[in-house]
Write a structure and sequence with these properties.
This protein is α/β, with parallel strands linked by helices and about 625 residues long. The protein has 21 helices and 21 strands. Helix 1 runs antiparallel to helix 2, helix 1 runs parallel beside helix 5 and helix 15 runs antiparallel to helix 16.
């Protein structure tokens, strides 16, 4: 046993799974993948879905096991959507520092936050009181090849770790984690927080979140709203009362608001910063896709906020934010955090954060409360903060394949492209074609084409072991490429309407999010990705809408695609064969998402529809 654990009773170090003082065997020897310190048997009925999921994965493999559980329990998809996987724990970056070795997540459930933490710490301890959750995590992290995660089963009030052990501790939804207590009085919370403080290093950080009992989920659509009745149980304290408890225990802390919800903190800022709060609400419409389903009542409320003064807006966000996010330290300082480094480099005090799948974007404001720069923090990078690089805006180059943890550049004005606006759709398409013309390179040869094909083909057997239909699709795509002349270009590699900003005043289009940039590749991939995500299959589309589009029975789609085909021919010099492109795009997408353990159920259903002649 290479980990340092202590006896939950004697607080002595455990040697060879046995307490050195009381001689009690502390770790369940039957389960070698999980260090089990808890003797309390949980109600297994609560975890029927997780047990079934684990059984399905053992029987069918990871991806197919997930697909089958979604068919049985559709609500479980919410645990595996991209926002939950990539963004549910992003608030911890507010107090993240470099060179942090050991991190603990308490109440890790299915491991969404744990996985992000594992990309930012040398070793992560994932602690949960349900072994079934940890058994799933073991399968998940084997699939995603995360090797720096230690799984621990323990009760939350008896942490089996030595004093001053962790650099960082994360606890999402704090009150749920102490539900083992008969009541949730301040005294019990203090006992629990003292245990946190015991295992936290003096200069370490503790990040936790709580639901706001008055919280209003302003930006969520009805179908995404959480069951607030369940989550409000016992949450009868305000953030001010938590502040008093933390102060009494000697913690220093900062408090943040987050929207649209606790588990999806897409937008966040300091609770005491009325300038950034005011700017956010006055510009909120620029961040909302036109396709987002928000009720008329909420849209009216958003309009009211836009014209409110900063003092009123600060009161509203303090009172009605769906959740509060606390960044705490016992005896440390915030000066070496990523956040403080960014503010020092940009000589600013005011900021907002926007959470994306692969990064956190900081909007940096000047003294006039105008955004002047953005800073980008890469969520999946261990690299040092010492060299925070600056990039001026160039015509196509924003942040091209840089390995730095943090970079920043000048502010780009504009709002997200509207995928319902034909003019904007084609403005972005024109940008893509101009980008490809200016980065045009040598002609693709047969070796280039075969390399691209082989990469996808060798992955398919893992997803379709008993069905070789994909051979026909891949061959059609290969022949399509070989019979046409295609010149290699640079690739953005992540194009969709969400990655384009439209500046209405200057009528300029800018692409953002360059993390997946490739210096050279097949330009058809960028085109197909943009077309598929923007008008072939929008996020809110149903499978039936997709079928109608493929069958050319959707009039709105037909008008757009006919114009796109003409533009395609003018640019590439050959006909666009949409079905061949879509089929290969779907195969390519499931290999990319599948390797990362992401939900590919939607793609698999579209593939099944196309296989059966739609």
């Amino acid at each position: 046993m290479n980990q340092n654990f202590i006896c939950e009773n004697c607080k002595m170090l455990i040697d060879n799974e046995t307490c050195q003082r009381c001689g009690k065997i502390q770790i369940d020897e039957k389960e070698k993948n999980i260090f089990d310190f808890s003797t309390i048997i949980k109600n297994k009925q609560k975890l029927t879905k997780i047990n079934t999921l684990n059984e399905n994965i053992d029987k069918f493999g990871y991806n197919e096991g997930l697909s089958k559980i979604f068919e049985m329990y559709p609500s479980m998809k919410n645990e595996f959507n991209d926002e939950e996987i990539f963004q549910s724990g992003d608030g911890f970056f507010h107090c993240y520092q470099e060179d942090r070795q050991k991190c603990l997540e308490i109440g890790s459930k299915l491991g969404n936050i744990t996985e992000t933490l594992s990309h930012n710490f040398t070793k992560v301890f994932s602690l949960d009181s349900y072994k079934e959750n940890l058994e799933f995590q073991h399968k998940r992290f084997q699939h995603t090849k995360r090797k720096n995660i230690v799984l621990v089963k323990s009760e939350y009030n008896k942490l089996p770790f030595p004093d001053n052990y962790f650099d960082f501790i994360v606890c999402n939804e704090l009150l749920k984690k102490i539900s083992f207590m008969e009541n949730r009085s301040k005294e019990n919370q203090i006992i629990w927080l003292k245990e946190i403080k015991r295992v936290l290093k003096n200069d370490g950080f503790f990040y936790f979140t709580i639901h706001n009992k008055n919280g209003f989920e302003l930006l969520n659509s009805k179908k995404n709203n959480l069951n607030r009745k369940k989550e409000k149980i016992g949450e009868n304290q305000s953030y001010r009362e938590y502040s008093k408890v933390l102060e009494g225990l000697g913690f220093k802390f900062k408090i943040y608001w987050a929207l649209p919800s606790l588990n999806i903190p897409l937008y966040s800022g300091r609770l005491d910063d009325k300038k950034s709060i005011s700017w956010f609400f006055k510009n909120l419409d620029k961040f909302l896709p036109k396709t987002k389903q928000i009720s008329k009542k909420k849209r009216l409320f958003i309009s009211f906020l836009k014209y409110s003064n900063s003092k009123l807006l600060k009161y509203i966000i303090s009172k009605y934010t769906p959740s509060y996010h606390f960044c705490c330290t016992a005896n440390g300082t915030f000066k070496d955090t990523i956040e403080e480094e960014i503010l020092n480099k940009t000589k600013s005090k005011t900021f907002l954060t926007l959470s994306r799948r692969l990064k956190i974007i900081y909007f940096i404001f000047n003294n006039k409360n105008e955004p002047t720069k953005i800073a980008i923090v890469r969520k999946f990078s261990f690299n040092s903060l010492n060299d925070i690089s600056y990039y001026k805006i160039r015509k196509y180059k924003g942040i091209f394949k840089e390995d730095k943890k943090v970079t920043y550049e000048d502010w780009k004005p504009g709002r997200m492209l509207d995928p319902t606006n034909e003019k904007e759709i084609f403005a972005a398409l024109e940008w893509i074609f101009n980008f490809q013309n200016e980065t045009k390179n040598e002609k693709m040869n047969e070796s280039d084409i075969e390399y691209e094909i082989d990469e996808i083909e060798k992955e398919m057997k893992d997803y379709f072991p008993n069905d070789l239909f994909y051979n026909k699709w891949i061959k059609e795509y290969e022949n399509y490429l070989k019979r046409n002349t295609i010149f290699k270009t640079s690739l953005h590699n992540d194009l969709s309407f969400r990655n384009f900003l439209i500046d209405i005043q200057s009528n300029q289009v800018n692409a953002i999010d360059w993390e997946r940039y490739k210096k050279e590749g097949n330009p058809i991939n960028d085109f197909t990705m943009y077309a598929f995500r923007t008008f072939v299959f929008k996020k809110e589309d149903t499978l039936e809408v997709f079928r109608q589009k493929i069958q050319r029975k959707n009039n709105e789609f037909n008008l757009i695609i006919d114009k796109v085909q003409k533009k395609f021919f003018e640019h590439y010099g050959f006909e666009m064969e949409l079905l061949i492109l879509i089929q290969f795009h779907l195969l390519r997408t499931i290999t990319i998402k599948g390797k990362k353990g992401h939900n590919i159920e939607k793609e698999l259903k579209m593939i099944e529809l196309l296989k059966n002649g739609f």
